[in-house]
Write a structure and sequence with these properties.
Blueprint (H helix, E strand, L loop, with lengths): L10 H15 L5 H17 L6 H21 L5 H17 L5 E6 L4 E22 L8 E10 L3 E4 L8 E5 L4 E8 L4 E6 L2 E7 L3 E3 L2 H22 L2 H5 L20 E3 L3 H7 L9 E21 L2 E11 L5 E3 L1
Parallel strand pairs: 3-11, 10-13
Antiparallel strand pairs: 1-2, 2-11, 3-6, 3-9, 4-5, 6-7, 7-8, 11-12, 12-13
Helix pairs in contact: 1-2, 1-3, 2-3, 3-7
């Protein structure tokens, strides 16, 4: 399984051990460590609703790491609900705020407050772990995307980033995939489905979530206006025609639904997969990517005290913001 990476214990055992250790250790912990314990448990619960089949154990394992890290960073003087609220606001700021923009949050009941500032955005080179089917060609350097995409028309997925590569499978219009990244220098995108890379698709055949609906709405609007123009032959019919769909358009709150977590390493990813016949055909490896990174400064206060931290976050392959 996964080439040279072998597992000594099952993914389920890893998750159980992590959660149990958090429960035991949390009994005599400080407020900050309690925040970490609560965060880890919340992360595990959230992760259990992400992914199916082989991906579910991976999501649970990553969820434990995610919640635990954030709880430890900003959980010292916050209760569980306030911590989760600050985490959500931090994720929104990373996804939407401009450089130098400060987002403020306050809970009038607990008097907890937060100031979240995106200080700068830059492009970094880093390595990310991926899992691919062994027939899928190993990617070279990628321009990281890490976002849900949809198939705009029934399309071939190929084992390599070329029309000369064999077809891995055919995906129907509207199918959802995860765009891992664009191959450097080529108009091909490596895509994930069921938590592993299934192949490459030409960039013109996919778009961000919501693109297909916008395209169909624009086509319908254009058709309606063409009918109106034919009937009236007036300029007014042309004025109400909708513009073409925007390939960069994204549905509201898509990014804010992503998590903020510690970067996941290759060993953690491999250990989190279950032993199944399907995973015998998987390869896990590090891939070099160019990725956007944002520096985030968080100031959190409550009647119990105040904390301040600065982190650098970059997208992961699944769309989550990762602390790097």
């Amino acid at each position: 399984m996964f080439g040279a990476h072998q597992k000594s214990i099952s993914a389920r055992s890893i998750v159980i051990l992590l959660v149990c250790s958090i429960l035991v250790g949390g009994c005599q912990a400080s407020k900050q460590n309690t925040g970490m314990a609560v965060g880890a448990l919340v992360g595990a619960v959230a992760g259990s609703f992400i992914g199916k089949g082989a991906g579910k154990a991976l999501a649970v394992g990553i969820g434990v790491l995610a919640g635990g890290f954030i709880g430890n960073q900003i959980g010292g003087y916050l209760d569980e609900q306030d911590r989760l609220a600050v985490e959500r606001e931090s994720t929104k700021a990373l996804s939407r705020a401009k450089d130098g923009e400060t987002t403020t949050w306050e809970n009038p009941d607990t008097k907890a407050k937060a100031e979240i500032t995106v200080e700068k955005t830059e492009t970094v080179e880093r390595e990310i772990p991926i899992v691919r089917h062994k027939k899928v060609q190993k990617p070279g350097k990628l321009e990281l995307i890490g976002e849900p995409y949809e198939i705009l028309t029934a399309s071939n997925v190929r084992f390599g980033p070329s029309m000369d590569s064999d077809v891995a499978e055919v995906l129907p219009e509207g199918d959802k995939v995860l765009a891992v990244g664009k191959v450097n220098g080529k108009n091909w995108i490596l895509i994930n489905k069921n938590r592993h890379a299934i192949g490459y698709i030409h960039a013109s055949l996919v778009g961000k979530e919501g693109t297909l609906a916008k395209r169909k709405a624009a086509a319908k609007s254009t058709a309606e206006n063409d009918d109106a123009k034919a009937e009236t032959q007036t300029a007014d019919a042309q004025k109400v025609m909708q513009p073409a769909y925007d390939l960069d358009a994204m549905p509201e709150d898509m990014q804010s639904s992503r998590t903020l977590r510690k970067a996941v390493n290759l060993d953690t990813m491999v250990a989190s997969y279950p032993d199944t016949p399907e995973t015998d055909d998987y390869v896990a490896e590090q891939v070099e990517v160019e990725a956007p990174a944002r520096t985030l400064k968080m100031k959190v206060s409550s009647p119990k005290g105040q904390e301040e931290t600065t982190v650098v976050a970059s997208k992961g392959t699944d769309g989550a913001w990762e602390i790097i």
